[in-house]
Structure formats: structure tokens, C-alpha cells
Amino acid sequence: MSTATSNLSATERQLRENVLKCILIVSWVVLLLFLPLLYGVIAGNESLGPIFGPIHGVGFIIEVGLIGYGAINKWWGWWYPVVTVITTGPPGAILGHRKAKNEALGN
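The structure corresponding to this sequence follows.
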């Protein structure tokens, strides 16, 4: 555990845990919303786009915003928002979550 994370107040630790939990929840929801969009593209069903597209887009913005918030506060490196955006959201956010949690909480 680094000195930066070992001296966290209970309030700061709880805030970081809550943001990390929200990132994980939003990432899974965004991934689940992406599946009908992907199906629509493969099946040629354009009616799914106007329904799931905007919801998925808002979720993606929330996901990147939360991850960016942590990076701005130096809870984790800028690698996390970059990986999340490059992988179009959920894959990078979910796969990078453990490393970000270790950096933010020193676990």
C-alpha cells in the first residue's frame, strides 16, 4: 500500500469506493445496452438504434465522466480513461477496474 492511499480518511475512502462501484455498474449496463444495438446491426433491424442508441450514449458519457473524475483527482492514472475510450467503453472499464481499484485504494 502506498503512502498516498494508506493515509486516506474514511470519508475519502468511501467516496472512492462509491465511484468505483458506480463505474462497474454503469459499465455493465452500457455493455448490456450495446448488445441490442449490435444485434440490430447484424440482423439489419434499424428500429433498435433510436431506442437503445441514445441510452447507450448517455451511459458511455457517464462512464467516461466517472473514470475521468478519478483520473483528474489522481486516484488512478490517465491510462484508465484512455483504455476505456479506445475500447469503446465497457471492455476497457471492466478490465481496467481492478488495477484502478488497486491504485485508488491501495488494495
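The chain has a mean pLDDT of 92.
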